[in-house]
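Researcher: I'd like a structural prediction for the single chain below. Treat it as a standalone chain; there are no partners to consider.
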Amino acid sequence: MTNADKNPIRSLCVYCGSSPGSDPDFKAAAVLLGKHLAEHRLRLVYGGGDKGLMGALAESVLAHGGEVLGIIPEFLLASEQGQQAKNIAGVNLVVVPDMHTRKRQMFDESDAFLAMPGGIGTLEELVEVLTWAQLRRHQKPVGLLNINEFWSPYVELVRHMADAGFLHNPDRAMPRTFTSADDVVAGLFS
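Model: Treating it as a single chain, here is the predicted structure.
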């Protein structure tokens, strides 16, 4: 029995870097996660790029027979990266007018969220979806793929905010944390 047979979660939005980062384990985790998503018939929803962790993840999902929805704003499509993103065969690429529309459509198309290593854009996307959860705008699962302790400083910051009394619902602002791509599918949806 696959995840699609027993779980209402059908799509996972993954926020991650448009560069590979300095640690080769980041890309290896993206490739492994893509394989797991395809094997469990979970559609990937992501930012539409073809480089870095985004590209590795999307290509892995497709290479293993999975489904990929990329959502990219027009201004990124006009850049070199966006032009190349159209070249990942099999990606259903949706072009939207701006970043706000992109994030909202990624939210609407997804049943759960996961942040892999990435930059300030990845952090911003993660924080927004967690803010919505804290404000009880959704109850969708949110997780971190904490490869080689990448997200540990963020987890400590959220704990610090909670301890200082700045989080109204700290339990809803703390994502589930995974150290391996192997644990994500089972752990995020339990």
